[in-house]
Amino acid sequence: MQDLTTEYLTPAEAARMLEVSVERVRTWLKTGRMACVKTPLGRLIPPQEVERIAVERAKKGGKDGTVTTPVASGMQPVE
Questions:
Q1: Claim: this prediction has a pTM higher than 0.85
Q2: 13-52 burial, b if ≥16 CB within 10 A, otherwise e?
Q3: How far apart are CA 5 and CA 38, in angstroms?
């Protein structure tokens, strides 16, 4: 079985990449602004979500939107 945690990011990793606080990422997760997968390990975020938020922030005049997240191809949501 494949280790899914290597394809997903923790809220702390996403916060670091987006240059925001972990609390802000947790708020986005709770309000549904950022998608995640709930696991026994906690909430895990697909890298594409971090990239999407970075682009959104860049369009609204936030940070420059550059994210060094590798995009895992063919990721399927875990149910």
A1: no
A2: bbbebbebeeeebbebbeeeebebbeeeeebbbbbebbbe
A3: 11
